[in-house]
């Protein structure tokens, strides 16, 4: 995946380029979808596959209405949490740019449904889209029902990594067990694996949690972060400029993880993260966002300075093996969308 360059300029001098990703774009490839497994939670499914399809249809109608009208106010009818924040920002960017090129295209055909088995709330269902006609990889969607009187709403999405094999789940007519944040049956509990991943994404391979996870060469999100640090730092220090680059990744506040049991006793966990990166150059060197991207639009014409702070909303889906397994935690998919900028 190629990076989108920020612009570093000196008055009446030059423009330099380097990359900051604004969204994940994977080449199309065949993904293996979850295979139904007879084992299921004792409570039974919280909704049927037909009901989930109707939920998805209502969600897609709301997304289409918001895109066609440009009115983000209708989104909260069928979006919540990080999905609502990201889509609201994307529609704002589309309005500022005068086109919707940077709005995520969520496919409306599905190859797999993961139905929750639960008698409590909130509840979470998952769906896997078909690959897009533009050869983008399928996406994994998470939908939350906050209470018995609330409809299911889109909570988050990730784009599946190339060639990924998703774990197996219980058949929709049986339902898959939802996992509590502190569930101790996994190699790492859902809440702890979320926190460890955020720390690992920030600290890199030197993190004490690194042995629990696959390598950063296999994990495309962490690979991007590592390569981006090197590239941005090199650019900011070009010609002795002595600029600096830093970033941090943290759990999105007040946003619990979403976790469901896999057929092998492990779990699939979706996590919402916030990333902030700071680029600072010496006086006289301007650091500007890349042309035609979200950061440029969100600055709304403000003149560049020698400092740029970009905020991103990131979502990752992880496979966590069962307790006692010798496997590592693996990335299933991720998304990375710029939602703020300041100077």
TrEMBL record:
InterPro entries: DUF8094
Protein keywords: Signal
Family matches, as Pfam families: DUF8094 (PF26366)
Signal peptide: 1-27
Family matches, as PROSITE patterns: PROKAR_LIPOPROTEIN
Domain DUF8094: 45-336
Protein name in UniProt: DUF8094 domain-containing protein
Organism encoding this protein: Xylanimonas oleitrophica
């Amino acid at each position: 995946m190629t990076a989108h360059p920020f612009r570093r300029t000196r008055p009446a001098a030059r423009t330099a380029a380097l990359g900051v990703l604004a969204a994940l774009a994977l080449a199309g490839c065949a993904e293996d979808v979850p295979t139904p497994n007879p084992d299921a939670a004792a409570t039974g499914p919280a909704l049927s596959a037909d009901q989930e399809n109707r939920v998805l249809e209502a969600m897609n109608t709301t997304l289409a209405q918001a895109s066609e009208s440009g009115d983000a106010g209708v989104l909260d009818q069928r979006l919540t949490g990080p999905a609502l924040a990201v889509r609201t920002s994307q529609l704002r960017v589309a309005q500022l740019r005068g086109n919707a090129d940077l709005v995520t295209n969520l496919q409306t055909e599905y190859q797999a449904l993961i139905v929750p088995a639960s008698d409590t709330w909130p509840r979470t269902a998952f769906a896997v889209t078909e690959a897009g006609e533009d050869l983008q990889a399928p996406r994994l969607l998470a939908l939350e029902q906050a209470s018995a009187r609330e409809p299911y709403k889109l909570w988050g999405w990730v784009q599946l990594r190339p060639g990924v094999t998703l774990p197996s789940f219980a058949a929709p007519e049986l339902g898959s067990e939802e996992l509590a944040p502190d569930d101790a049956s996994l190699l790492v509990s859902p809440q702890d694996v979320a926190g460890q991943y955020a720390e690992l994404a920030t600290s890199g391979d030197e993190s004490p949690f690194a042995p629990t996870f696959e390598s950063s060469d296999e994990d495309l999100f962490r690979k991007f972060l590592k390569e981006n640090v090197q590239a941005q730092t090199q650019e900011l220090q070009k010609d002795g400029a002595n600029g600096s680059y830093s970033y941090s990744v943290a759990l999105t506040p007040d946003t619990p993880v979403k976790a469901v049991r896999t057929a092998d006793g492990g779990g699939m966990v979706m996590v919402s993260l916030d990333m902030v990166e700071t680029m600072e150059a010496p006086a006289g060197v301007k650091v500007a966002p890349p042309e035609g991207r979200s950061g440029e639009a969100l600055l709304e014409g403000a003149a560049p300075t020698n400092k740029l702070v970009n905020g991103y909303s990131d979502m990752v889906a992880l496979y966590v093996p069962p307790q006692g397994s010798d496997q590592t935690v693996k990335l299933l998919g991720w998304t990375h969308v710029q939602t703020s900028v300041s100077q």
